[in-house]
Design goal:
single chain; 740 residues; alpha+beta; six-stranded mixed β-sheet; 16 helices; 33 strands
């Protein structure tokens, strides 16, 4: 108690001189001149409960606010002879009050919209030094809401004394429950926010954990030596808002012996929280030796671009590891790895992993998701994989990647994360490239507009090579921008694209006519290929004769499809390589060449890759000692992409392509899938990829800000009528005929 008596004497001294210098300095701004003289309210008494009062009326025809345009305002002056805690209220039942508090020279100290007893009344409460102050009483809505009466009161309130919690020692926990209301003391740190104050004694230095929890409130916690708390001494105040992805707060750090104060406050976003908010406060000493034996999981490294394009999926790679012990309480627990970012409603989860069990987090264990984030001792495991996030709009942004560790009962035992600032661009940027539209050459570039009011705005410029000052019509600009986009976003690095890099260049070239790059044409092409491949296998006759489907024969069908795919890809790759060589030699890419390259790429990724990928699983199974029972083969099967296909998707594609014997083919499809599930991957992969082609094409135009171009959109519109029924040997079907 003697320690507390001395400490509380410091509280009183701190309150007597508390001017909250950090906040006041931050809030001072330049303002205009008052249009009316201040009404003198007099000097406020020194006894708690003393009050100054005035009635007023906003008439819409008199004094102008020095801060808010087209708003009535009345200015009042008052003095306080003794430093203390002062409450200023502006109340009206007819208008939404807005309150400004100024020093005697007219410099703004604080402002607030709401915060009073009623939702639309305004209140500021804080410690003020002796001297003169001004009040501007105005409204949020301005004059548009019409005249209104109001009342101003200035009240001296009792200094908020901390509630004494007691002495904190090892093995002893301190706790208390409390409430925040509109009549609570206002926060030292957050103007207009209710708070409660507490004090405790720490006889010996220790690591102290202070936790503030509330079901309906958004708790904010401040811990400091008792004098430093009230005077906002820099470097001595520990604070926390949200923790562990919740609105609760926690401060945990080593504290020297002494008396400490706690401010427990809450954010009240636009006064939408309950006027009475309950909270709990708990204090304990952390046993440091036991804590060191616990696992300490951290995000060690994060790999994410500093500039991304709005709407693009952005890969977030990272390395996570256990830098502590491996003793999960009870031998059980798990880690949750996640990433969050901004949204209109506040931070929200972008992506997260399924909880990773404790047996994968032994001491020193570390797991990475790509080579850039790997270390000499880290490993890659399926349970820890990259995130994919999308930033919807351009501008400055951020991303937080965190890891939370839980024990077997679901209690949190650790938390760590990385914060990354980045810029989201409205579109891709690229240096000037040369394109050709209708025989004329143009230079096209896309650069960040650093003079724009908004951050991340990308402007694309099209200039005629022969006459840079000439005006370029809109239709030509759109074609030029499209051609430049194909060159810089698709052709540049085309062989590094995941699906293209997986295709082989091992077979003799086979030339084809690529279908239109729209879903219906691609689906018809896929269906025609399916039918031709299956007919060539002889399996329809075997099924018709009542024979069981031989799984090896199904494997052969998958391999035969892959061999034909390889030949087609050899032809497409040669076309792209020729085009890139011409561009490297200084030639312009024409609009027609850009359309052709784009169509070929869509065909390769939507038809060829899905038809080839399953063959690698067949090859692996035939090489494995356990065949299809090999764990790695099963992992390859499970790792194939999938989508939610309509059960009639294959039938619809056959019928749209005009394929005969659809019923027999559908029946055979079921038998082949049952004999070898890998065959289903071939069929479903192509159907999924073809169906998704339209969305991918539209997204490509959106990235280039060309999604409002009627002419370009027509290239990706579905067919107006049925295509001619494919004939045997017709190269336009996208595959060689069975005889070839």
């Amino acid at each position: 108690m003697a320690l507390f008596a001395g400490g509380l004497a410091l509280v009183g001294a701190g309150a007597a001189s508390a001017q909250e210098p950090v906040l006041i300095q931050a809030e001072q701004t330049t303002q205009g001149e008052a249009s009316c003289e201040a009404v003198d309210l007099g000097t406020l008494g020194n006894t708690p409960g003393s009050e100054l009062r005035a009635d007023g009326r906003w008439t819409t025809e008199d004094c102008d606010s020095r801060f808010r345009s087209n708003s009535d305002a009345h200015t009042y002056r008052f003095e306080i002879a003794a430093t203390g805690r002062i409450r200023v209220d502006v109340m009206s039942s007819e208008a939404d009050s807005f309150l400004y508090l100024l020093d005697g020279a007219g410099n703004r100290i604080a402002e607030i919209d709401d915060g009073g007893v009623e939702r639309l009344n305004a209140r500021i409460e804080r410690e003020l030094q002796a001297g003169a102050y001004l009040i501007e009483a105005t409204t949020t809505a301005g004059r548009i809401r019409g005249p209104a009466d109001f009342e101003v009161t200035v009240t001296r309130v009792a200094t908020c004394e901390p509630q004494i919690l007691g002495v904190l020692t090892p093995g002893r926990k301190l706790g208390v429950t409390g409430v925040w209301t509109s009549e609570s003391c206002q926060s030292i740190f957050l103007t207009g926010h209710p708070s409660q104050y507490f004090a405790f004694s720490l006889p010996q230095g220790a690591r102290v954990r202070v936790e503030l929890k509330s079901v309906s409130g958004d708790s904010v916690l401040i811990v400091a030596p008792i004098a430093a708390l009230r005077q906002v001494v820099p470097g001595q105040v520990a604070h926390n808002d949200d923790v562990d992805g919740t609105r609760n707060s926690r401060v945990e750090q080593y504290l020297s012996p002494g008396i400490y104060g706690i401010e427990a406050t809450t954010y009240r976003h636009r006064d939408l929280q309950s006027p009475r908010i309950e909270f709990t406060l708990h204090l304990s000493i952390v046993e440091e030796e036991a804590q060191r034996r616990l696992p300490l999981l951290k995000i060690e490294e994060v790999d994410i671009p500093t500039e991304v394009v709005a709407g693009d999926p952005v890969p977030v790679n990272y390395r996570a590891g256990n830098l502590g012990g491996d003793s999960f309480p009870g031998g059980e627990g798990e880690a949750l790895i996640y990433t969050i970012g901004p949204s209109r409603g506040g931070p929200r989860p972008y992506d997260r992993l399924q909880p990773v069990p404790s047996n994968l987090w032994q001491a020193s264990a570390s797991h990475h998701t790509n080579d850039e984030t790997s270390s000499a001792t880290s490993t890659a495991i399926p349970e820890v994989h990259p995130f994919s996030v999308v930033f919807p709009s351009h501008g400055p942004s951020w991303l937080f990647t965190g890891i939370i560790t839980y024990d077997g009962d679901g209690n949190e035992i650790g938390f760590y994360g990385h914060w990354h600032d980045l810029t989201v661009l409205s579109g891709p940027t690229y240096d000037p490239v040369k394109v050709e539209v209708d025989g004329a050459a143009y230079s096209v570039s896309a650069q960040i507009d650093h003079d724009a009011e908004e951050t991340g705005v990308v402007v694309t410029t099209v200039t005629a090579v022969d006459d840079p000052e000439a005006e370029v019509d809109q239709a030509t600009q759109e074609k030029a921008r499209y051609a430049a986009g194909v060159l810089t976003q698709l052709l540049d690095g085309i062989f590094d694209r995941t699906r293209i890099a997986a295709l082989p260049l091992a077979s003799p070239p086979y030339s084809i006519t690529v279908p239109r790059p729209v879903s219906d044409s691609l689906l018809k092409t896929a269906a025609t290929r399916f039918a031709a491949t299956i007919e060539a296998s002889g399996l329809p006759e075997a099924l018709a004769n009542g024979e069981a489907i031989n799984p090896v024969a199904v494997d052969d069908v998958v391999l035969a499809a892959a061999e034909r795919v390889s030949g087609i890809y050899v032809s497409l790759a040669a076309s792209w390589q020729t085009m890139l060589r011409r561009i490297d030699d200084g030639e312009a890419i024409s609009f027609a060449d850009a359309v052709a390259a784009h169509s070929e790429l869509i065909y390769a990724e939507s038809i060829l890759w899905p038809a080839y990928s399953p063959s690698e699983i067949v090859v692996a199974a035939r090489a494995a000692e356990l065949g299809w029972d090999d764990p790695q083969v099963q992992e390859m099967l499970d790792g194939q992409p999938s989508c939610d296909l309509d059960p009639t998707a294959l039938r619809d594609a056959y019928e749209a392509a005009g394929v005969e014997n659809v019923d027999e083919l559908i029946a055979l499809d079921s038998e082949m899938r049952a004999a070898r599930p890998v065959y289903g991957l071939l069929i479903d992969g192509a159907l999924c990829a073809a169906a998704e082609a339209d969305a991918a094409s539209l997204r490509f135009l959106e990235r280039l800000a060309l999604d409002d171009s009627e002419e370009l959109l027509k290239m990706f519109e579905p067919e107006e009528g049925p295509e001619p029924e494919p004939q045997a040997g017709d190269d336009s079907a996208g595959e060689p005929s069975p005889s070839s």
